[in-house]
Amino acid sequence: MLATGPSEAAAMPSTPSAVAAPDRPDADPPSSALGPPQLVPPRLGAARLDMVDALRGLVIALMVLDHVRDYFHWQAFVFSPTDLAKTTPLLFATRWVTHLCAPSFVLLAGVSIFLQRAGGAYPRSAQSRFLLSRGLWLIVLELTVIVFGFNFVWPFLFLQVIWAIGVGMVAMAALIWLPRQAVLALGIVIIAGHGLLAGFDPSRWGALAPLWTLAMRPGAVPGIEGFVAYPALPWVGILCLGYGLGPLFLFDAQRRGRVVATLALAMLTAFVILRASTGFGDPSAWQRHAEPLIDAMAFVNVSKYPPSLLYALVTLGVSLLLMLALEHCPGWLRRVLLAFGRTPLFTYLLHIYLVHGLALLVGVASGIPATVFVGILGNAGRIAESGWGVSLPAVFGLWLGVLAALYPLSRWFAGVKARRRERWLSYL
């Protein structure tokens, strides 16, 4: 709950472009292609593909749905929408589809970093410095502007997907010096193997035990109000996977479609086989139910906190298929998704304050004290006891209204990024 969100994966040029894959994507480009390194903003060297932005835009829209549901649905703070004993099929599906958001953003972050590398506009050392500064900037945003928007109280620790991507970028500042295949292998090992460490007891580390929470296991950090929703290491693995798969997005359209579809189907097939037969890959094994619909819901009800192997397989497999489908979506929908997908961090920051602020205003107008909507992350029971909330159909209506309000602002900022090249635009 309240733990999904995007980040602009890496600074990208603001207009679509295609680049040819260099003979050695990991090699630095010739100096003649660079110009003075200190004058080349990192965002000028990235390749942008509409299919990447369209998927990013779609998952931003789904993320907005999740947060509108969090702040407006009358059952949001009563029970988890994936609790099969209490949920409904529509509520479960509404929550499950938003599971696509975080892994898609993180995977695309890795893809974007590779496309920068392959674009050849500046040397590896410049990209490494940029990734370090961009990653640290995202962490600072998570600890300040973002958590205040979610909570309307500060300080409060709430580490989620922006933090995880920030840590991933800091790690990639070093990892881009390795061969791409090594980064890909590292990502696969982390995704497939981190669950094997679930039983580790960090208490033997003494004062260093909180590092395990930051890296591997969600929970509170002793002495600090708040909690870690997204332990960083499993998400860094997904980012490494995206970087390692980056060359797929430089293929010609027909070959790219075949390879991406094959990869997506392989992920989904692996998910079905592992989920149905071995129980490996998720801390909660699938348990059969007599009712077919509940049984199907249980089959896909895998663990996000932290993201299990099965969670990664099913969500990334579905997202890659959606990426291919979006290449054939209607023009008006494509324009909307591209506006969101080309301004993800900007749109993300806007939506937090818009959704939370709207909930406060509507709640006050309905007779709910404003204090109910302040400090919501630290006292969820207060909003549940207040009687606040609307039906799920009303949530969908509010979601469309929020998207309509966001679209002109996102389109405007996408235009700013297309026309201007100041360095600060790479950080928003």
From TrEMBL:
Heparan-alpha-glucosaminide N-acetyltransferase catalytic domain ranges (all copies): 48-261
Protein name: Heparan-alpha-glucosaminide N-acetyltransferase catalytic domain-containing protein
Superkingdom: Bacteria
Native source organism of the sequence: Lysobacter antibioticus
Keywords for this protein: Membrane, Transmembrane, Transmembrane helix
Annotated TM spans: 96-115, 136-154, 160-178, 183-200, 232-251, 258-276, 309-333, 345-378, 390-414
Any one Pfam family match given in the protein's UniProt record, by short name: HGSNAT_cat
Region of interest (Disordered), residue spans: 1-39
